[in-house]
Amino acid sequence: MMESSENSSSDAAEQEVGMHRWLALELAGTIRHDGNGGVADELSTPAQLSAWIQAQQAEHTLPELRHADTPFAVDEYARNAVVSVRTAVRALLARAVAPAAPSRADADRLPKAADALDHLNLVAARVPATLSLHWPTDPGHAPTTRFTEAATTDPLDRLTSILAREAMLFLADEDSRRLAACSAPRCVRYFLKEHGRQEYCKPSCSNRARVARHYQRRQEAATSELETGSAGEVDAAGSVGAMGAAGSAGQSVAEQGKP
């Protein structure tokens, strides 16, 4: 069950302190391995979405979402709107890592990249925004640029437009060239490679892949040994049969030669 905590969205954009935390990867990372061989959705309920928003606000990746001094109330309609943005983001992340394989979590049911792109552009256009500089006072946080939406707009439109714009910023940034889908068994995360040959998002995934390769080699060796043994038995049986047939033929010839 340790897998569940290891793959939570809090490390979806696992990076060193001081490096930029991409909101697009945080959002995509809410689809994760559940620790039991399946896939978990951390935005499957309005309460989970609310908790995720609060976590991102604590990390300064999302602003406060209020309208006329009223906190943003998350409901099922809001959850569906955010999930639709996430689906579009994951479709474009899958395109970004091509020709390498995308995340196995949803590769077979993502929309076409062109449709995902249209959706993000449409959502982002709902709310006018200006580019601003943000530099949290907390230690370890570097200055970042962010599109600031008008606070008087609908909080849900503001939230989804922020998510769409942040995805655009990531995909257009050089960091997106380091994007990869972890190839470890069961892992479904997207991550940023620290070097060109990196295949796994973290050491635990590398260890899991190594164990899986070792197990596969043992299975292949055992299968090969069984096949070799079976082939040897068949050859031996064939040889015995041939010898028996030759002996019978020789005996028949000998009997024919008797007076």
Automatic annotation (TrEMBL):
Residues 216-235 are annotated as: Disordered. It holds the Pfam family zf-CGNR. SUPFAM superfamilies: Jann2411-like. Residues 178-218 form the Zinc finger CGNR domain. Gene3D superfamilies: Jann2411-like domain. This is CGNR zinc finger domain-containing protein. The lineage of its organism: Bacteria, Bacillati, Actinomycetota, Actinomycetes, Catenulisporales.
